[in-house]
Amino acid sequence: MAVDFSQPGAPAKQVASSFLHGVSAVAPSSYLVDGVTIKFLRGADHHPILPSLFDARTYERVKATGAQLMVGTYYYIGDRRSPYFNQWPGVRGDYDTYKRIVTGVLQEGKDKGIPVYSWITWNEPDIQFRTGGRNFEQFLNTHKAGYDAIKAFNPSYRVQAPEMAAFDRRLMHQFLLFCKQNNCLPDVLSWHELTNDPLNVEAHTAEIRKFMVDNGIQPMPMSVTEYQAISYGTPEAYNVGENVSWLARFERSAANGLESALYSAWNYTGADPRFVAGLGNATNTQGTLPRAVWWNYNAYRDMTGQMLRVTPSNATLDAMGAVDNSLHRSVLLVGNQAAVPTPVTLALRGLARSPLVDNGRVHVRAVLITNGDVLTQPSNLFEGDVDVVNGQAQVALPNLPAHASYRIDLRPSIAYKPTKLGFEAEILRPAEATAGYRTFAEVGASGTGAGVLLATAPGAHVSFALTVPSEGVYNLRSRLKREWTRGIGQLYVNGKPVSFPRDQFGAFNYHWTDFGNVALKTGTNEFKFVAVAKNPQSSNFYLGFDRFELTRLD
User: Fold this and answer.
1) What are phi and psi of 509, to 5 degrees?
2) Residue 311: Cβ within 10 Å count
3) Omega before residue 155 within 30° of 0, cis
4) Quick one: 66 exposed, middle or buried, by C-beta within 10 A (0-12, 13-18, 19+)?
């Protein structure tokens, strides 16, 4: 697999890091939300079993993520509590009732001060308007009615449509030509990609863009508002190997005008009232622990800077990656779509003048993400410095298991960096601790001992004030303590989540872990460790600390 650093491409946009019904007032746990990027979130104004974006607590939580909102205007028709239940637009030629529904939704959003990026006129019309005596022409007129109501309310509001259940070329062409003729072209063109094969995503976005140009339609931004898997409870909904290919192909489709792609929510069966928002299928059904696929989105969040050209030589693999030269880091994802293990060898190119290299070496870490309903920690399969010769390096990794993925992090070697700032936990005095914190002497710890946060529930935290002499980018390594009573901890530096959560559950062991590179300010910086969850087998949420080391990189 060739990774070319010589000519980084377009800015990393994380277009596929968006979610359907992904966040509610209470779920998922905050660290799972903090661990991903949420560009867009599509949901309902009101709904009996789904998160309601017009609910104040849900909206405030979603707002804090910085997500742009996509809201459907049609939910009242499917809600048994609504006076408009089952009143389909166009019955006996009546579209005015639907206009009143749409206007009411818009007015409530305005009254509550909820800024909505785009308003959706209907969902999956290629299914819903082809049964029950309804036809597609009835949908076209429904869209026209909804469009007119939205633009009459506020001409600057964005209309999103047609939200087809699949990319049906004939119906998409019909929809666009109707809209051109009837002055109701959407501001965002949207559909779903719910097959097990993402290979057509790039072709679909390129084809429909060309059709618009050929037919005198100014291409508008596109959104695939549901992707991956076709039904409830199917493993394809959260297979991590396949998921990498979805992410990679959506990111590549940005060049065709794709603005966003939203991971589907299949975490419940039918109208199960136990539905819990879980960033699509990225968490367990309680919304408290990450599924394996969440780790893909966590890596995707860290793909900042510019996208790289990654070329797999094996057709069963797909991959993507980005390099952020300002942070001296690169993050790659490699996914195996095959049902058998596949060898992976990284051929790193164009590193001659890269800030990823120090003293002729680049540091590489590869963690294995294997499928499962819960994955509290990926396995660290490879970590070490690799020689760079004539701007090139090669890393042979263990075979990638079926339907699994690798997260690969690259940074400069710190072996020859002259100055490392060391902080022993038993000497540091916490700036704040919301649970008991104590230090102790123990054989195996560095220095004279270590420290432990005696957390008994999620949310307990301890903060340390670490001082650096000058502003810059630093690598952070920490020596932690593993034990059977340990929980899962997430690090926040100056209020922002850094790296991924660390599960400290296991047999007694002091071990080093690399938290990656962080930009620090001159003087005091806050390092806060939060007990966010625990391994299902752990007896408590305790977090253990031994030593912290900061190494200046720039």
Assistant:
1) -170, 130
2) 12
3) no
4) exposed
HSE-CB at 504 with a 13 A cutoff on CA atoms is 35
Full 3-state SS string of 203-264: HHHHHHHHHHHHCCCCCCCEEEEEECCCCCCCHHHCCHHHHHHHHHHHHHHHHHCEEEEEEC
Cβ–Cβ under 8 Å, residues 12 and 325 = no
Q: Which residues pair with 317 in a beta bridge?
A: 336
Instruction: Report the C-alpha gap between 386 and 23 in whole angstroms.
Output: 41
Side-by-side strand order, sheet with 488-493: 432-433, 461-468, 523-533, 488-493, 496-503
The residue to which tokens 């396949």 are assigned: 242
Structure tokens at 456: 């008994």
Residues β-bridged to residue 336: 317
CA distance 385 to 431: 35
Per-residue pLDDT tens over the stretch 399-453? 999 999 999 999 999 999 987 899 999 999 999 999 999 999 999 999 999 999 9
pLDDT for 537 equals 97
Would strands 461-468 and 523-533 be described as parallel, antiparallel, or unpaired? antiparallel
Residues 244-249: what's their mean pLDDT?
A: 96
pLDDT tens, residue by residue, 126-171: 999 988 889 999 999 999 999 999 999 999 999 999 999 999 999 9
Q: Which CATH number fits domain 420-552: 1.10.10.10, 2.120.10.30, 3.40.50.300, 2.60.120.260?
A: 2.60.120.260
Say how many C-beta atoms besides its own lie within 10 A of residue 3's C-beta: 24
Q: How far apart are CA 27 and CA 277, in angstroms?
A: 5
Domain boundaries, given as residue ranges, for the chain: 12-195+202-227+254-300, 420-552
Bridge partners, residue 525, by sequence: 466
Domain 12-195+202-227+254-300 has CATH 3.40.47.40: no
CB–CB of 236/228 below 8 Å?
A: yes
Question: Does the pLDDT at position 334 exceed 80?
Answer: yes
Q: What is the pLDDT of residue 271?
A: 62
